[in-house]
Amino acid sequence: MSRNPVFDPTLQDILQAIKPTGADWDARMTVIDQLRSALQSVESLRGATVQPFGSFVSNLFTRWGDLDISVDLFSGSSILFTGKKQKQTFLGQLLRALRASGAWYRLQFVAHARVPILKVVSGHQRISCDISIDNLEGLLKSRFLFWISEIDWRFRDLVLLVKEWAKAHDINNPKNGTFNSYSLSLLVIFHLQTCVPAILPPLGDIYPRSAVDDLKVAACIAQLSAANIARFRSGTSRAVNRSSLSELLVSFFAKFSDINVKAKELGVCPFTGRWENISSNTRWLPKTYSLFVEDPFEQPENAARSVSRKSLDRIAQVFEMTSRRLATDCNRNSIVGVLTSPHISQPLCSRTSLHNHHHANGVNNGHNLHGQSRPWNHQMQQHWSQSNYVQNPPYWPASARSRAQQNWSQNNPRNMQGQTPVQGQTRPVITQTQTQQKSQYKNGKQPMRNTHAGSSQNQGHIGRPPGQSNGVNFARPAQISQSQRGQMWRPRS
């Protein structure tokens, strides 16, 4: 398509409106702390830990994103996978405790779901939470998505834009027969695998098996995936895709504009990075779903199993309409209107003059796709942490555990970082409390410099970005040179 000069700057305005601010991160950390306190009032859950996962951990959530929480039952020599009835019992006990506290509302216990879930909303922050027990699969998938976002910065921006677009058109709600957010992320991965030249590899090249089946050797998953990601990023023979964010977004909508027709015979397979014929794929037979989007980390599960036949036709219509409108030479307000919901589009459309002023000063210049005014987005975490002398962003706090739990966690299959740190590094941890940090920010002070710790208490979990492994930098480096200060961070090649 011909380059629209206002398209990419407009996308950056949308991203700035939907990306989480420091206050959004702080609010979610406060909710997590409140849940940790609530666990202590349930005798059977004392000693368990609260582990966030989902979009919060993969860094793919918007300002209004929900929280996915796994209550991990670190009980020494307990079984690795807690049974469904046990999960229902524990969640029922937690439900009574949260109800008695009076600090939560809209409490709903979905006991008979595939994964039993307790749905609650925090009374003060108004943040929705889905709480599950020992959700190891969710923790693992979140970490994979975080790694993938490290390969190319366009992946995260595309996911955020697609999720906002899907919500605006009411096709991001599995309850009404449309997509869940995870399946939308997989569609973005598939698009970046099948564009020319490819931006992401087939996920089978990152980990060659169903990762959920190998949870008992979780450390091996991290090591092998890190090595394969490093190999892909360092490849000098592959062609580099330099498409702009707007070009990738338009081609994304065009690719799936006839998804209702394709879905009759073909399935989306991010593991192989190809459309797969359903009739020749024994894992997907018999055909019982309207749309197949195979979960590459838990094959042959269908991540789009909630999509109904009726909704799929409407979804295809929304894809086609969006593709058609964005392919034309539309203006800024038209772009905002088709991609966002009213609570975002109305303020953005009324700030055209302010928008021009910002771009004149380089705040959201289309040539600087990483330019953001706040330090909490994915590209700026490194720069922010260095300039403020913090070795880890404050949304990865170390979990408090008992001595017995610390000893057991060294060999815990849940702990994908239980191995000795690579290259002699110790992993950075947060030693301040969240309350201290927030008060320092409000007073305009810089946070205290954190210290390193090598005890098992400070080893990472599946849901936390790991340290450096096999040449892939999954965490932020501790130092930055004077010449590098002020520069925008890009994923290392």
UniProtKB/TrEMBL annotation:
Xref: SUPFAM superfamilies: Nucleotidyltransferase, PAP/OAS1 substrate-binding domain
A cellular-component GO term for this protein: nucleus
Domain of life: Eukaryota
InterPro entries with a match to the protein in the record: MTPAP-like_central, NT_sf
Gene Ontology molecular function terms on file: RNA uridylyltransferase activity
GO BP terms in the entry: miRNA catabolic process; RNA 3'-end processing
Stretch list, region Disordered: 355-493
Alphabetical list of Pfam families matching this protein: MTPAP-like_central (PF22600)
Low complexity bias (residue ranges): 361-371
Poly(A) RNA polymerase mitochondrial-like central palm domain boundaries: 10-145
Compositional bias ranges of the Polar residues kind: 374-391, 402-430, 438-460
Entry protein name: Poly(A) RNA polymerase mitochondrial-like central palm domain-containing protein
Species for this entry: Eutrema salsugineum (Saltwater cress)
